[in-house]
Each structure stands twice: as C-alpha cells, then as structure tokens.
Amino acid sequence: MFYTIGEMAKKLGVAASTLRYYDKEGLLPFVERSESGIRMFNDSDYEFLKIIECLKHTGMQLKDIKKFIYLVMEGDKSIDDRLLLFKKRKEEVEKQIEKLQNTLDVVNFKCWYYETAKKAGTTAVPDNMKDEELPEELRKIRTQLKNE
Amino acid sequence: MFYTIGEMAKKLGVAASTLRYYDKEGLLPFVERSESGIRMFNDSDYEFLKIIECLKHTGMQLKDIKKFIYLVMEGDKSIDDRLLLFKKRKEEVEKQIEKLQNTLDVVNFKCWYYETAKKAGTTAVPDNMKDEELPEELRKIRTQLKNE
DNA sequence: GTAGTAGTTAAAGTTAACTTTAAGTCAATA
DNA sequence: TATTGACTTAAAGTTAACTTTAACTACTAC
Questions:
Q1: B15 lies in which domain range?
Q2: What are phi and psi of B115, to 5 degrees?
Q3: Statement to judge: residues A8 and A66 lie in one domain
Q4: Is the CB of B89 under 7 A from strand C?
Q5: Is the same domain home to A36 and A70?
Q6: Average pLDDT, stretch B19-45?
Q7: How does strand A39-40 pair with strand B32-33?
Q8: Of B41, B89, B39, which is closest to residue A103 (Cα–Cα)?
Q9: Within a domain: residue A81?
Q10: Residue B107 gets which letter from DSSP?
Q11: Which of B79, B107, B111 lies nearest to residue A114, judging by beta carbons?
Q12: In this structure, is residue B83 part of a structural domain?
C-alpha cells in the first residue's frame, strides 16, 4: 500500500511542504519514487517518520536526525551506535522533564501569589507575608526568586 | 545595591547582549539608567528577570511576555489578568510534560529494541517478535509506531 | 479534451531569538 | 595624560525549521 505525499502528510498531521523539506535535507533517503518522479510512501516509511518526529520532540536537530537515518541505512553494524543515541536521548528527555517540573513549581508559586493578591485586592499582601505565613512548599521558591 | 548589565547577565547566566535585546524589545521598562545612560539593575529587576526566564521556559514568546510586563506595570488593577495568565501557563506546562512523557515512552521502547538487537546481533530479532514476546508496557508503543 | 486537483523543483521569504559588528562614550588606573 | 575595559546604540548577520511562490507536470472525472 502506497501513499502520496499529501496522504502521508495528513496521516502524520504535518504539511506536505514539511515532508518535501525533510526530503531535500536528506532525511528521507528511503522514500521511493514512481516513474514520473512522484514520491511513494509506504508503511515502513510511516514508522521512520514517526521516529523522526519522536527524535525531534526530544530536542534533536534535523542535521543530527539525518545522521541517525544514515546509521539505520548502514544496517546491523550500527546497532551499538543507535542504542547509544537513544540512551542519550533518554537522558536528555529526563533532564527536560525535570526542568519543566521546576518551571511548574515557579508557576504554581505565582498562581498562589496572585490568588492571594486577588483575595486581598493588592499584591502588597503576598509581598509582605513572612516566610512562616506561606505554604511550606512555596517558601523555597520565593527565596530562589529573590536571592541568587 | 545596583548591578551593571554585565554583572546582572552573569548573575542570570545569560549574555549581556541578550539583556540589551530584551530591553530594545520593550521587556525591561523598569530598568533605571545612570545620568550617563548606563543601565542600573537592582534586586527587584532580578526578580522580574527570573519571572521572564520562567515564562520563557513555559514556551511563551517574548512579545507575549512583554504584554505581561505591562500588566505588572499597571499595578493592582491587572491582578485578575495576571492570575489567569499564570493559570494558562500551568496548563501549558502540564501539557508539555505529558507530551515529553509520551516521547520518553517511545525512546524507552527504542532502547529496549536496540538492547534486544544488540544481544542478537541483528534488528531482525526484535522486528520479528510477536506481541506476547515483548515486555507488556512496550506493546502499545510498538503498535502506535506501526499503525495509524 | 479540458478542467481541476495534486504532484514536481528551485529559490526566495518568514519568524523568533539572539549575536555580532562598528563606532563611539565613560570611569578608573598606570 | 594615556590606556584599558566595560558600557552605549544602530544596524546587520545568523540559525533552524519551515512556508510560500512560480512555473511546470501528471492523473482523474466529466
């Protein structure tokens, strides 16, 4: 079963021009063409594209994803490299989640801050609260925001 | 206590040119200047910059962060708007964490895939494994990657 | 056979967030 | 007084990842 670029783009939820751009950049060396030059995507191409999408979500750049594609093209002799690559991505994503969790902590502090300000009608109230007056889990955050 | 742009940049771990850029874009209307035109940052400016940093980490664009800065400048009458803004950022960050968690699931599948391929010396082994042969938590992921 | 829709390329344009450069000012030290 | 180093601005340059445009070709329906 083959798909045109438009069909595959729809299946993936991206623009067809994005797939053409990826192809131009050398990320899709596996895509076949019809006699008249039209791209013919198949199901294994879909799987490839899903992995490209996944790697992109881990924060990898297209030029590095391209290198991975070429590792796959090399076959079984690049298995070790590919395993290492995914282990690296795992670490990266875990770091990103941790960073977002810290960001969320600050956002939650600010939500509390403005809830408190809203009730009082002024930000002076949360601003002037002593450390003991604020929820325990928020104290560290406020200190971080003020100090070094 | 005042800081020059270089000192504040160092304190924040960014380039001084970045702070100048933010200023040019109107994100730092609160920064004072000396008679000779040199920026003088103080501790409350640091707090502002930490919040700008936080909002940036939530995925907000500078032009939208600028709007927030102007809400702060308006004083207590914009408390409700600011609360709403942070509630929105909270939702956004939670969504991003969820997305990264899904990405991590795929990466973990790929780690297992290449560990298995490494042991066998070929990707044919994990490729040809029946659903029942792979760890339960990975089955859904493989199906997702292959199908729609 | 013609209209319409989807495919093709190459090349130029877009956007965000910086970064660099050039030319100059200012304050402190040798 | 001269040098040094950090500050200033405006403007141009950079980068990644697309997106758009123009000019063309190919398949499908009527």
A1: 1-74
A2: -60, -45
A3: yes
A4: no
A5: yes
A6: 96
A7: unpaired
A8: B89
A9: no
A10: H
A11: B79
A12: no
Residue B81 lies in a domain: no
Q: Residues near A107 by Cβ (< 8 Å), separated by ≥ 6? A: B54, B58, B86, B89, B90, B93
Confidence of residue B1 (pLDDT cuts 50, 70, 90): confident
Same domain for B62 and B107, yes or no, is no
How many folded domains does chain A comprise?
2
pLDDT in tens, B96-126: 999 999 999 999 999 999 999 999 999 999 9
**pTM of the predicted protein model:** 0.93
Of B74, B106, B130, at which residue does a domain stop? B74
**Chain B residues with CB-CB distance to A60 below 8 A:** none
User: Smallest Cβ distance to A76: which of B50, B121, B144?
Assistant: B121
- CA–CA separation, B141 vs B139, rounded Å? 5
- Per CB distance under 8 Å, which residues of A are interface residues toward B? 11, 43, 46-47, 50-51, 54, 57-58, 76, 79-80, 82-83, 86-87, 89-90, 93-94, 96-97, 99-101, 103-104, 106-108, 110-111, 114-115, 117-118, 121-123, 144-146, 148
Residue A33 lies in a domain: yes
**pLDDT, tens digit (0-9, with 9 covering 90-100), for B66-97:** 999 999 999 999 999 999 999 999 999 999 99
